[in-house]
Design a protein that fits this description.
- The complex is a heterotetramer of chains A (336), B (240), C (392) and D (432).
- By secondary structure, chain A is mainly alpha-helical.
- A two-stranded antiparallel sheet of chain A has the order 1-2.
- Chain A is globular, with a radius of gyration of 21 Å.
- In chain C, 43% of the residues lie in helices and 21% in strands.
- With 432 residues, chain D is mainly alpha-helical.
- Chain D is 77% helix and 0% strand.
- The chains are: A mainly alpha (336), B alpha/beta (240), C alpha/beta (392), D mainly alpha (432).
- Chains in contact: A-B, A-C, A-D, C-D.
- The interface between A and D is large, with 45 and 41 residues.
Chain lengths: 336, 240, 392, 432
């Protein structure tokens, strides 16, 4: 029984939050890694584009809510997703046409493109605030919980409980579907394979008759889908605020690099490693150990490895250590 | 009019040009007939690879023409030349390393409309080892096998001419012999082969025609056997 | 020569704005971490100014307000902005800044050197009580030290023996957490853990998990209503870690209840304010003007602007050096009580030589070093709204 | 300096003078001070990027360390805190260093395999537990002493100008550690790693209260120049001001700013002189050779990694110096104010716009971008005012636009960066 309690405790406080946070990071990191694989630069505007797409979803959701449209227990925002995807696709393609394409044409150094993406970041940053303002926006509706901590406790009779939110279920399910669809697309379709070919060997892809502009456009479209999904799921699970989305940039990058830049599998794994380590390393294990250890051996202190103040640092220390030992990340990333 | 029996399938005529201001090629002519193997040899820096790239359109020509089956293609981009029937295997970076062997071949057929399974089977028949390893990532194969993937990929468009830039660079002599055997086999199916080779002796041995370039210009042009027999060619370029 | 050039240029450029004009600078962090609450704060200050202008009783001229951005956390930007407002826009007084750090920077680098009065509605750091200010600095928000005592007595009266504290990781949160911890422990209670949280971060489950292990009957949340504080509460409820929260002033706002919902029922907190009908009046005025008057520090902002203008009227001068001594007079008894919407009447009384006691939207009572005395309302969430339980 | 560059600097000077006329001399002087500091920060980034091509976006961390150095150098020590837990903290830090040294030695000496992993793990765990066991009580004791105004160990009570030197030392020391760890990484990875490490430095500054009061800030740092208030009551100064025809307030404010400006200008001149000499020296040529072709430089027997480390440390030291100057000017240390957008990306914009690889370009970029950073907001407000003038007073859109005015600044920075990158990729003053 105590063992079960310990397990439920860990699930409630570490595993479930880490899995849903990890899923959201995974979608964002996938976008970053795809851009890196195809366009070969680190896309610093990612967080802000995420906010832009989500802003589109939110405005549409409000309109739908006002019109009385609802999905029952599911959030209305899911219906609004296409609009957000169109919005972020529009801004990404606009940035590509007006900024990035030029550097592709002149074959600029990747670093120059990274700086250009910094410029885009500044612009989109301002744009988002023009569109929806700097405030926290709430757009979640529908049922909140699949089951609550209390319901779980009452049903199982355990001392500890765990709760699962609808938004967490949606997050995990949607992420699973999107990731599966992406992998199917990349590995099974002609266009997907041509993207991988382009990522592997750009010159040879050109020789094989693959149209680079088409590959780039498709990439931005996929990124638009990923980034809007990530932003919306995150917003549903927590809340929307432009500044927070900008802040998500670092963990998303950490995940992509940790997994191996340019490697989609790596991005997903990296995201879960980051999420799990942020929550796990700073978790205070006292209660958990109280359940597992015999009476009288329970620890005095909180048994916390690191204060939560430094949870952010965990992912970076991890990142640097991994890079030192395996410079291409956990999974082999792009080497050029 | 173009006569497939006598006229060269591909000819770069009087090519002059280079990457920047300075010319590398000077009035250089390279050609290959149907089903034949043509080899470009010469000392280091003679412009062998440059001549091949010029034929393939990766270099701006100030003078000269390139004709494929009688059609002037001088102004076409490399991609357009691929769809016109030219296959090109670069010296390095000539495969998609993280993709499987089969995907590599599929990408070779990217511009082809319709079913290419038959060609795939032909490539597998030509290189049986690739059929065995078709689910494996190409980057994990040995050097010789990678070259086979690269050649196979170029064959997927069913080219009239297959151009190989130093296909045997960095492979062992045994693998080299095997590769040359395959190249002969390909030529027998009617595909013209144009290749640049470091291993001049072995290459000229299988070549119908050889071009010896020096400083971007033709020095000797003759059949492979004739060149091998020419004492001056032997002394200057084949190490005795 | 230089002087002459300068004067000509200035006269040429500001000719239209030459006479009978009073300028008020409104310096808040319109960008940066507090960017979401500052619009309602600025709107509050501007509401007071509009009211004074509309009254026609302000003898010193038309009051114009100029907004400036202090970035909340960018002291260099804050100083540059304040410098511009003071020396270029010639503001006679400043409403602001918002965050304690930049407020201190503006005070030391601009307000004191230029001798300009500044009244901050939201800088609550105890350090500002002792800062040298030449009598120029006031605040309509009380020091956090007082709030610690109030929060402690609220919790002890409710029989709470052990608490965990989480605070937003800045001087406001840290100061408040210190004050609450010290007071609560002195009152015989146990503080199981004090953990900070960063605002605007992705996820707070790690913080909540640690706090949950530490345990405690109540989780004290010393943060901001639309920032990490709310994320912490949301997460704590979702994880079943805590069910009752003690909310500090920065956490009080209808938007909190709107987003969290029924689970917040029974949580409680405190907000500066005495038994004051002015608060409700203010919220009515704010709604009519099209903004949320219950947003954090919005009433205090209204009061800050109103105090400046009343003090000017009382002194008969818009010169900071003169009217700075009148701020305490108009803010405190004796005199007629003045609430939001009463500014016209207040100006009349002052013009007639009478005395006013400005109460305003947040029950202003200035003490000692020119800061709010620290009357607090004890609030509890009942039926989806903050209800006043009693005054402390 | 050719004519074009002289004209560019003249325009910049004219802009500042214009501010002096249109807004006020005080605003202009204040801006000059910040421009000078920005120029030095930009020089620091230029040393790393322009000289050696290191894409390090950890500038914020070094600037913050410079600020910390001011506190550690110039504030008086807090004796109660030292007696309460000073020894404990020092001991804990010693344990920490010993642990790391031991771990590195173990890594080097024990052959790879399970044994090494085990040894490493044991050393790290034991070291960490010992470190925490000594540190935690000491920190509690220090932070418990008079938390509201002290609660930290204080500094060394030395003259504040000395802190500009210690700032360089502190930033350089930390840069050495960071460089050792991360300089081997490829450019993109280096960027993210340094960005993250800078965040870690800020996290330490915010949370290690015993060091510099954390987020409680340190106020009232000593100043190297007189106080305005003191000047305003000084009869000599007043008569002097009167002679100039200035009011006491204005004169004192201008005088103080001028003193700072003089100090900053001297520092900028020294750094500039050194940078230019370094640029033209064989060392500078070698750095550029490495930057332009790392492989061939390596082939020529240059120790690329050591050179990179060197230049990384130098750039960091200059950034640290600028950070110390900034905190000295502000008179307070607020760790919360360090944001990557402001202290890393903005500085990068300065370098790119000014012209990377050119010291004069970086100085111009520092001046121009700071000028815009401050002035775009009023311009934006004015523009939006113009735009919305015809809208009804109660229009929701009007209110929304006015509320958004402050964000014009970020967009402008982005647009400028994009335009420069596209149309003048070498910046306003290109590398020679």
């Amino acid at each position: 029984m105590d063992f079960l309690n310990a397990l439920v405790l860990l699930a409630n406080f570490v595993l479930i939050p880490a899995i849903s946070y990890g899923s959201q990071l995974a979608l964002g990191a996938l976008g970053i890694t795809l851009i890196f694989a195809i366009l070969r630069f680190s896309h610093f505007a990612h967080g802000d584009v995420m906010a832009f797409g989500t802003a589109g979803v939110i405005l549409t959701t409000w309109a739908l809510q006002a019109a009385g449209v609802s999905l029952g227990p599911l959030p209305t925002a899911l219906l609004a997703l296409p609009v957000g995807i169109v919005a972020s696709a529009a801004i990404l393609l606009a940035a590509d046409r007006s900024v990035y394409r030029f550097y592709r044409k002149v074959k600029a150094k990747p670093i120059v493109v990274v700086m250009a993406s910094l410029g885009v970041m500044f612009v989109v940053n301002g744009l988002v605030r023009f569109v929806i303002g700097p405030n926290d926006q709430n757009f979640a509706d529908g049922a909140r919980f699949l089951f609550t901590v209390r319901e779980f406790r009452d049903a199982t009779g355990l001392a500890e409980g765990m709760g699962i939110r609808i938004s967490q279920v949606i997050t995990v399910v949607v992420t699973a579907i999107v990731v599966a669809a992406l992998f199917w697309f990349l590995n099974r379709t002609r266009t997907g394979k041509s993207m991988r070919a382009f990522s592997d060997n750009e010159d040879l892809a050109l020789l094989s008759g693959i149209n680079p502009e088409r590959v780039v456009t498709v990439t931005w479209l996929i990124v638009a889908v990923l980034v809007t999904m990530a932003g919306t799921l995150y917003g549903l699970d927590k809340s929307f605020k432009a500044f927070t989305y900008f802040q998500l940039l670092l963990p998303m990058f950490a995940a992509a690099i940790l997994g191996g830049m340019g490697n989609p599998v790596g991005a997903v794994v990296g995201a879960f490693v980051i999420a799990l380590s942020e929550v796990g390393v700073t978790y205070a294990f006292r209660k958990f150990l109280e359940y597992l250890l015999p009476d009288g051996m329970a620890p005095e202190g909180l048994v916390q490895l690191l204060s939560t103040d430094y949870k952010f640092a965990v992912s970076f220390v991890l990142l640097v250590v991994v890079l030192l030992v395996r410079p291409t990340g956990l999974f082999k990333g792009q080497t050029q | 009019m173009f006569d497939a029996a006598t006229d060269p399938v591909l000819i770069g005529e009087g090519m002059t040009g280079g990457y920047g201001a300075a010319d590398i090629l000077h009035n250089c002519t390279i050609s290959v007939n149907r089903g034949e193997i043509a080899v470009i040899v010469g000392p280091n820096g003679a412009g062998k690879s440059t001549a091949m790239k010029a034929v393939f359109g990766m270099l701006n020509l100030r003078q000269g023409h390139v004709r494929l089956m009688g059609e002037d293609i001088t102004a076409l981009s490399p991609q357009a030349r691929v769809s016109k029937g030219m296959g090109f295997v670069p010296q390095t970076h000539n495969i998609f390393p993280t993709m499987t062997v089969e995907e590599n071949l599929e990408m070779g057929a990217f511009i082809r409309e319709g079913d290419f399974r038959e060609t795939l089977e032909q490539v597998y028949d030509l290189f049986p080892i690739l059929r065995q390893k078709r689910r494996q990532a190409a980057g994990e194969l040995s050097g010789g096998q990678r070259q086979q993937v690269a050649v196979g990929r170029a064959l997927m468009t069913k080219p009239a001419v297959l151009m190989l830039d130093e296909p045997t660079a960095g492979v062992s002599p045994i693998v080299m012999d095997e590769l040359f055997d395959r190249i002969i086999e390909i030529a027998r199916t009617g595909v013209s082969i144009l290749m640049v080779e470091q291993n001049a002796r072995q290459a000229l041995d299988i070549a119908h025609k050889g071009f010896v370039l020096v400083q971007g210009a033709n020095r000797f042009t003759d059949t492979g056997q004739a060149l091998l027999a020419d004492p001056e060619v032997r002394r200057s370029f084949l190490g005795g | 020569m230089k002087k002459l050039l300068l004067t000509t240029a200035l006269v040429g450029l500001t000719a239209s704005a030459a006479q009978a004009q009073v300028n008020i600078g409104i310096i808040f962090g319109f960008t940066g971490p507090l960017e979401s609450i500052t619009p309602a704060m600025a709107a509050g200050a501007e509401l007071a100014i509009a009211e004074v202008n509309a009254s026609g009783n302000f003898a010193l001229g038309t009051v114009t307000s100029v907004r400036g951005d202090d970035g909340c956390i960018d002291s260099a930007l804050a100083v540059a902005t304040a410098e511009r407002l003071v020396t270029s826009d010639h503001v006679n007084a400043i409403v602001g800044g918002d965050c304690s750090g930049v407020t201190g920077a503006i005070l030391q680098n601009v307000a004191r050197p230029n001798g300009v009065v500044m009244i901050s509605p939201s800088a609550t750091s105890p350090a500002l009580s002792t800062a040298e200010d030449d009598g120029l600095f006031f605040r309509t928000a009380p020091s956090d030290a007082r709030q610690g005592a109030v929060a402690t007595s609220i919790m002890r009266d409710r029989g709470v023996n052990s608490i965990a504290i989480t605070y937003t990781n800045n001087d406001y949160g840290a100061g408040l957490a210190d004050a609450i911890r010290t007071n609560f422990e002195a009152a015989g209670g146990t503080v199981t853990m004090v953990a900070s949280h960063e605002d605007g971060k992705a996820d707070y489950s790690a913080e909540v998990a640690a706090l949950a292990t530490a345990g405690g009957e109540v989780l004290v949340v010393a943060g901001y209503v639309d920032q990490g504080g709310r994320g912490i509460i949301r997460s704590a409820l979702d994880l079943g870690a805590f069910s009752t929260f003690e909310l500090v002033d920065g956490m009080i706002g209808q938007s909190l209840i709107d987003t969290i919902g029924a689970e917040l029922e029974g949580s409680y907190g405190q907000l500066p304010g005495a038994d004051n009908p002015g608060t409700e009046t203010y919220q009515g005025l704010a709604t009519a003007a099209g903004f949320d008057g219950s947003s954090a520090f919005s009433p205090e902002s209204y009061d800050a602007a109103a105090l400046i203008l009343l003090a000017m009227a009382s002194a008969g001068s818009a010169d900071s050096a003169v009217f700075k001594d009148h701020v305490m007079n108009v803010a405190n008894a004796p005199g007629e009580m003045i609430y939001p919407g009463d500014l016209a009447r207040a100006l009349e009384i002052i013009a007639a030589g009478g005395d006013v006691d400005y109460v305003g939207a947040s029950a202003v009572e200035l003490i000692g070093p020119g800061e709010s005395a620290g009357n607090y309302r004890e609030l509890e969430v009942r039926n989806g709204a903050f209800e006043t339980v009693r005054f402390r | 300096m050719n004519l074009r560059n002289v004209i560019l600097f003249a325009i910049m000077a004219a802009l500042l003078v214009l501010v002096g006329f249109l807004q006020s001399p005080s605003v202009a002087m204040g801006m000059v001070n910040m421009c000078l500091i920005s120029a030095i920060m930009a020089l620091g980034v230029n040393i790393q990027w322009g000289y050696a091509g290191l894409f390090s976006v950890g500038t914020m961390g070094f600037v913050a360390l410079g600020g910390l150095a001011v506190v550690l150098t110039s504030m008086p020590p807090v004796h109660e805190a030292w007696s309460a837990g000073g020894l404990g903290v020092l001991g804990a830090l010693a344990i920490g260093v010993l642990t790391i040294v031991a771990a590195v030695q173990a890594w080097k000496r024990v052959p790879a395999g399970l044994g090494r992993m085990g040894a490493l793990l044991v050393i790290l765990v034991v070291g960490f537990v010992a470190y925490r066991a000594v540190l935690d009580p000491a920190v509690d004791a220090i932070e418990g002493t008079n938390t509201a105004v002290a609660g930290y160990l204080g500094g060394m009570g030395l003259p504040v100008l000395l802190s500009w030197v210690t700032a360089m030392g502190l930033a350089a020391g930390v840069a050495w550690v960071i460089g050792k760890v991360s300089l081997g990484l490829r450019s993109d990875y280096l960027a993210i790693a340094t960005l993250g490490i800078a965040e870690v430095i800020i996290a330490v500054l915010k949370n290690e209260d015993w060091l510099s009061r954390g987020v409680r800030n340190v106020n009232g740092l000593p100043r190297p120049v007189p106080y305005e208030v003191a000047l305003q009551t000084n009869p000599t100064f007043l008569s002097w001001a009167e002679w100039l025809g200035l009011g006491a307030t204005e004169a004192s404010s201008l005088f103080v700013k001028a003193c700072y400006a003089l100090l900053f200008a001297i520092v900028l001149a020294i750094i500039m002189w050194l940078s230019e000499r370094a640029w033209k020296s064989p060392w500078g040529r070698m750095m550029r050779a490495i930057r332009d072709n790392e492989t061939s430089a390596k082939a020529m027997g240059k120790d690329v990694k050591a050179r990179h480390l060197q230049v990384f440390i130098l750039g960091a030291a200059v950034c640290g110096l600028a950070g110390a100057m900034l905190v000295t000017l502000d008179g307070l240390l607020t760790p919360g104010s360090y944001q990557p957008l402001r202290f890393t990306f903005l500085i990068w914009v300065m370098v790119i716009v000014g012209g990377s690889g050119n010291n004069w370009g970086s100085v111009l970029g520092g001046f121009l971008i700071w000028f815009l950073w401050v002035q775009v907001e009023p311009i934006g407000l004015w523009l939006i005012g113009l735009l919305t003038a015809s809208m009804p007073e109660d229009s929701g859109l009007r209110a929304h636009l006015i509320d958004s005015a402050a964000h014009v600044r970020l967009m402008t920075m982005g647009v400028i960066l994009l335009l420069v990158l596209r149309f003048a990729p070498k910046g306003l003053i290109p590398e020679k």
